[in-house]
Amino acid sequence: MNEITAYHARYFANELTARRTDDNRLSQSLFDANVDLNPHQIDAALFALKNPLQDGVLLADEVGLGKTIEAGLVLCQMWAERKRQLLIVCPAMLRKQWANELSEKFALPTLVVDKAVVNTAMKGTKGAKLFNFCKEQVGSQILIVSHQFATKEMATFQRFSWDYVVIDEAHKMRNAYKANNKMGQAMRNGFASMRKLLLTATPLQNSLMELYGLSTLLDEHLFGDKKFFQREFVRRGNLAELKSRMAGFVKRTLRKNVLEYIRYTERKAVTQEFMPTDGEHLLYEQISEFLRQDSVYALPKKHKHLTAVILRKLLASSPQAVLGTLQAILLRLQKLQETGQSHDELLLDEQNADELENIVQLESDEEENEEIDEISDETQPENGVNASVLTAEIAQIKHFIAFAQNLQQDSKITALLTALQTGFAKMAELGAEQKALIFTESTRTQKYLFEYLQENCYADEVVMFSGTNNDPHSTQIYQAWLEKNQGTDKITGSPDVDKRSALIEHFRDKAQILIATEAGAEGVNLQFCSLLINYDLPWNPQRVEQRIGRCHRYGQKFDVVVINFLNKRNTVDQRVLQLLTEKFKLFQGVLGASDEVLGQIESGVDIENQIANIYATCRSEAEIQQAFDHLQAQFADKIDDRIQQTKDALVDSFDQSVLERLKVMTKDRLNNMQWWFWGVTQFALTGKAQFNPQDWCFLLQQSPQGAIPLGRYLLPRKEQKSVLQGYEYRLNSPLGQWCLEQGLTAETPTACLQFDYKNYPEKISLLEQYQGQSGWLSLDKIVVQSAVENQENLVFTVCDKQGNLLEQEFAEKLFLLPAEVQSLSSLKPNHFVNLTLENVAQVKIKINEENDRLLKQEMLRIQAWAKDQLQAAEDLIKEIKETKREKDRELTLTDDLEKKIELQEQVMKLGKQLRKARNELDDVQDEIEEQELELLKQLKTRLQQEMMVENVFVIEWQIN
């Protein structure tokens, strides 16, 4: 007996591809996702997709709860529904992270677009390069651009009809309602009327007006104008109404809400002190004093501050790190001595350029670095070169180089062995793996540490991770990884992505220590490692938190030990560590730094610049202490007093019962989908593949299409009984799509299906009672088409031989059984035709009721906006009247003639304004009513729909 008939395959394929609007809408993206999903993430993604009439929603989960995953689910579902004009707008430093996450977790194709990419691809072409480039890519890949690039090129991006736009770190545009907010205004106007998903952990930081600003990014008609919002919600504090209005477009879950099913481990801080020798300390002091000079040739005029920061950080990292930069500066000065020409370029070799990116985190070269421009020093030497001063400066740099080269001891690197011993002892105590992640801000220090550890106790146990990963050791690991994974879809074809994967796998499976530059703090998940060493500690709290987040995240089974190096002879270093520990609370507790704290400091550039200024200007210990006291006081109100109940009251929309229901429902749905996809594949690849049901995999021996490779394919989410290598078999893969198409187009004429319950290994009570009986079954598909969204609903109508209507679940269970196609034993009875028509009609009514509910919801929103606008006009009259009454009272009470004249003029002016406002009130009301009617008309047009019914098949059923 054939297990999977064409009828099975057609039903399964329709189930897998149906465009749903219920809680099962995410089925396709959940099935294809290569990530453990939590109920709150599914709930958030469903919230984003819930109402096709909305222009967008804001997802505002606290840090670490997976907003990127939630957005990935939405994008994956859009892709599955063939809505593939998709755009992600995010900070430049997160672009690659987004690309990696979507590729690894959802198998979605992405492309990071910037000026360099476009120019390279469109070299030699004329016309609108960016538009033509995007036109070629949109639909085949998800485009990822930076905030700045999108702002600069918005005229091009708004020419596309995006199906969905994701804006990450949306709080950066919270002042979008202000006319002078360039970025916010660009996003607000450029993506108006397009569906948007805004992501931010900090939707509200200092003022409720920030919520208003974010609302204007989503939809201009969520609230009235800013004056109304200020008056109603900011001044009057009508928070109940505000929460009610926000419920439809803001979704937020707090970390404390999910502790029931997400286990967060603790952070434990350890300080590794080291005492520099007199020689090391003297070199540091001499270079620091040199950097404090107002006017030097060594530091180019345009980038004096930046070069000084680099030198200071490299000096603190290791002597080897600062040597390269000093040597580059020496070459620059010698060239200046030879030519007599002053240069403003920052002359760094390739390795120092990498240092620059690691330390200062410059944005990509299409973006302006405003921070550097603002702090450039203008007190540099004129173009004329003073030969004696230059000669003395060259001698000074040579002295620094010789001093660094002749140092007999590196106290810091010696302390690293102690730190590793301490850390691994902690790991043994906790029962965790003996693995350590070491962060440095210098690629030279990275290489130095690598060689030192290889020679001291850790031979063949160390791997490096940087922005390029081009060193010989990393290349060797990469080549071995390519050979091992040949013929599998682990290889993406992108060398950068594949190198990262190879190095992380090597660290996980073979090495004990990973030494990373700042590139390792982005987009890398290292839950299997719970020892982190900050060999160089950044001054930016967000970068520290980002580092710790590589290990201390969902999935980490052990407490994370964070070891911070501390120079005992450097007062500034001690105060930096104190600030990060005591004020920002980065290193202790279950959750680390809260998003409320980190949200106050934006990108951290401000605090980083202020610390850099302390290093540059303060000489005595008293000056240093005073400067840090001032800095901590400046952040005190932002850090110590962030518990504002208003914030949680406004945007906390957690519902445990909903999440529990989703958890059960999702599991059941995914189990069904595995069976449906397996069944469709068996049907489609009959004669082309060998199937292994024990391991839920198959060996493709004959390709149905030229581009589909032969080999082993593994069904996702099924526990294999043995460790197997092969291609991940996903719904959206070319082979998966081909199999689904075979199922959808299978020939299914009316026939009798004899289902075999007798030999089925499991008990199904619902079917058992009908064993030996027969009846009729029809599968229909209701297709609803509208301007905003298409939807499909599968409807089973099934009855027994006596004509009794059976429940839908009976039909679903029936197709779990294998069947054999036979000739009809009787003609389809007329009463069954009527039953089918009635059943389909009932489902149509439910669909219309749901669409009417959405329409009513949007109508109420538009009416609320119109009411806001009218209220604003009436409030203006009230304000003028109140002000006029106050002036009248003052006029009555004053005896000062000059004051009387001034007040009389004000009263007359207010009277004129009042008459004008009253006269214009009717016109304003008419205008608002016209706008309201136009919006309602547009809404109705968008929801106008056509409903069609397609019969999939009709069968006579028998159960033996």
UniProtKB/TrEMBL annotation:
Domain Helicase C-terminal: 412-598
Coiled-coil segments: 866-946
Domain Helicase ATP-binding, first and last residues per copy: 48-221
GO molecular function, one term: helicase activity
One Pfam family named in its UniProt record: SNF2-rel_dom
InterPro entries, A to Z: DEXDc_RapA (IPR057342), Helicase_ATP-bd (IPR014001), Helicase_C-like (IPR001650), P-loop_NTPase (IPR027417), SNF2-like_sf (IPR038718), SNF2/RAD54-like_C (IPR049730), SNF2_N (IPR000330)
Stated name of the protein: Helicase-like protein
